[in-house]
Amino acid sequence: MEKREADFQNFEKKEQSKKDIFQKKQEELENSVIEVFKEEEKEKDFSSKNLEKILDFAQKENLNLASEKIINFLGNYFQDNIANKEKIDYLLNFSKTFDLPIDKIAESSLKISLSKDMIYRSQKIINFLKENNIQIPLDSIFFESIENKLSQGEINEVKDIFSLAKGKNIQIDFSNEKKEKITIALENGTKKLLESANLEKLNKLISFSKEENIPIDFSKKEFSLASKKGIEKIVKDGFVEDIKNFYQFLEEKNIFIDFQEKDIKKSIEDSLISQILNFGDEASYFKDFNETISFFESKNIHLDLEYIFTVITKNFLLQGKTKAVEKLLFLKDKENKKINLDLNNIAKKTLKDSLLKGWGYITQNIIDFIKEKNLNINVEEIIQEAADNFCINGKISYLKNLLNLSQENKINVKIEEELILNGIKKIEIRTLRDIIQIIEFINQSKGYISKEIREGLVLGLVKKLPNFIQKERTQVEVELMSLKTSFGNFLNNFLGKEKEINPLFIKLLYESLPSGNLSLIFELREDAQSLNNLDSSLEIIRDLIHNFPSKENLVLIKKINEFFNKKEDKEKIYQEMKEFWFEKYSFLYPDFYSKEELEKFENDEEIKKIFLKIQEDLEGLWAERKVDKEEISNLIGKLQPELKEKIEKIIKDNNNLNINISIGNLRHSLYSILISKDTKNKDELYLLDRYLEEIEYKSYGNYLSNLKEIKENNFFESLEVLKSTLKSMEADFFVNQEMKEIINVINTFEFKKEDLPKLKFYIESLLDKISNFLEKERKDFYQLYNKFFPGESLKQKEELFSQLFRNKSIQFADDLALKINQYLENNKIVSEQSLKEMEKIKNLRKEEFNY
């Protein structure tokens, strides 16, 4: 028995599989016919091999060439081009070639034309049918169209169809079964018109039913339900005369609605609220609003006015429309409406809501309203509650706006460090604007939070930025320039002031932010346009990159390039792309490219080249902080002639040794200016120093890779490079007081062979001090990190800590000092300290053994 059941299930699966395969082939055939029709319309040549292949394929697989999809496609073409003889001739020849039934195509064409209310076009189609002696069931087609139109309540179109039928001597019969269908259609149309409260069409529909002797039974429950929706709609529209007329119509037709029913009253109340909120605070709408209430009261329908006025007042306040609230209150008093409106409670709740939504301008309006009305509300207490809420939930951008608001209103706000400490790990970044707001909050945080909290905020921001993807569409260049300005203020406030914030954290934040490189944005837009020029189907990518060159786009372009460059796992990569597209872009463009389309792009070297360039530029904008060379050039032009000349010389110099020997002094000169209290535009100088640091990093990397080991012939130059790198260390804030002392000694060391033991001692001291410095920084960093982000793995901490020092001057100095130390050891040079220790032991031995 079980075997029989299993066999039957297998049989069913096989049959279903056959059906699926057949359906797939049928779809393939339909798409091919339509594609050939479009492609060869211009040629008007039916001798192509494509046609032969299609016909052979259809015959071999026993497929239906005259399927509904093909007939409807051709029918639509027919009615679109009925006035164009050349195109109709093409259609007739095409149909003949494929042995497609022209009568079915014409029938489909007329149905489409009538459904689109194209009476003139329908008339042309009927004329064509008569001229070419093509027979189709006109009476049933017209009946079906009238039935459909009546069901939609489109009575004007029904009359047009009747007129056309009369003019063409087409008989429309409503007897027997057809009468039953028309009755159902009339009822459906009536329901739709009641729902939309369209009295004009309702009256025409009723006249039509009388003319055709098909009465409408308005006592049916469905008409009552539809009328409820009509009442809601017409009240929401806000014209009191329309409400009166619709109400009168319901009474005349004996359509019963229990207006005392709770749900009905609630829907009317909500519609009234929507009416006044949608149309704003114009006097005419208040008049209609008031008359509507009076009309319902006259019909003994007493609405909950306290609820209506409360909701409207609250929403007007949240919209910043305090004048509209004044008009509403005036209306209440003028009409002597007995409404217990608790304005105190409404304003208090609205203020809380507005604050929690971060609405600065509207909140200010509400505060002004509270003061003007002299309401008994403790605004300071509510603002403090909101501040606590933002601290706990990491909504720092909201907190920043709140501080501005409190300062404008001379309200003291306290930021509880314990609360913000817990909230830092929840920092929210949804847009570039949020990043700007958080940096601006730190800028104005003096007197509110400690250095430790400030640094915690920077860490929280840095941790969130790698995964930040902006979902809102904005003008990226405008936001990036605003971000640049905020960071410039940040530098002016904190750079060189270690008591305010650790300068290493400043650099960590700088390296995490997008570059704000406008030239890259313009290049991206040009490249996006070039893609579109190469293939019009890449218009979607063009729009995404051109309109919003975001970090989100970087992820997408990386995936596309990965698909182009990998031979294996293409299906997996493609599916990942589709999922990413659906998640991020489907609200803009529902469909992603097919695998075949991507493979077509892959075969075009020029397209691939531009995709790679776009990825590189997006990385420069969002991941690698590529600086704008033109901006750097402008900054250099503003410097003192001597400094300008030195920097230009370094930029042009291709000799790594020359750069490494001189760049440290240059960066140290900039550093001295940067940390000065009187220096303005620190952001420009900081950007220039970061650019020099990038040159130094590349140059030092090349120098060190070529420096296999230090020998006598390159010892002196390596010492000079070390001195320069130590200057850069100071410029990078990688020094403490102990390190400064040994750095000064090494920088002033004059090379003499007999002084090598001293040098050995200095180098060992330097290595020891660097190790101690890093150990102390690690300890302090971990302590801070654990406080704000407890429970995170050692790997996460180590990765962020190493980012502070990896590929920086302190690493360069450490590497080179180790090589110099190795050279001295290889040459049997013992440090001065070690020599003293040996001499001391020797003297002790002499005393002990009476030498």
| Class from secondary-structure proportions | mainly alpha
* Principal-axes shape call: flat
Unreliable sequence segments: 844-851
Overall pLDDT metric: 84
Strand content: under 5%
Q: Give the radius of gyration.
A: 41 Å
Tell me the span between the first and last alpha carbons: 112 Å
Task: Give a brief rundown of this model.
The protein has 851 residues and is mainly alpha-helical.
Give the topology:
Blueprint: H1 2-40, H2 49-60, H3 68-80, H4 85-97, H5 102-115, H6 119-131, H7 138-151, H8 155-167, H9 177-195, H10 199-211, H11 221-237, H12 240-252, H13 262-279, H14 283-298, H15 305-318, H16 322-334, H17 343-356, H18 360-372, H19 379-393, H20 396-408, H21 417-423, H22 432-443, H23 451-464, H24 476-494, H25 503-512, H26 518-534, H27 539-547, H28 551-565, H29 570-584, H30 595-602, H31 605-622, H32 629-637, H33 641-652, H34 656-674, H35 682-706, H36 712-731, H37 737-747, H38 756-788, H39 794-805, H40 809-826, H41 832-848
Helix pairs in contact: 1-2, 3-5, 5-6, 5-7, 7-8, 7-9, 9-10, 9-11, 11-12, 11-13, 13-14, 13-15, 15-16, 15-17, 17-18, 17-19, 19-20, 19-21, 20-22, 22-23, 22-24, 23-25, 24-35, 26-27, 26-31, 28-29, 28-30, 28-31, 33-34, 34-35, 34-36, 36-37, 36-40, 37-38, 38-40, 38-41
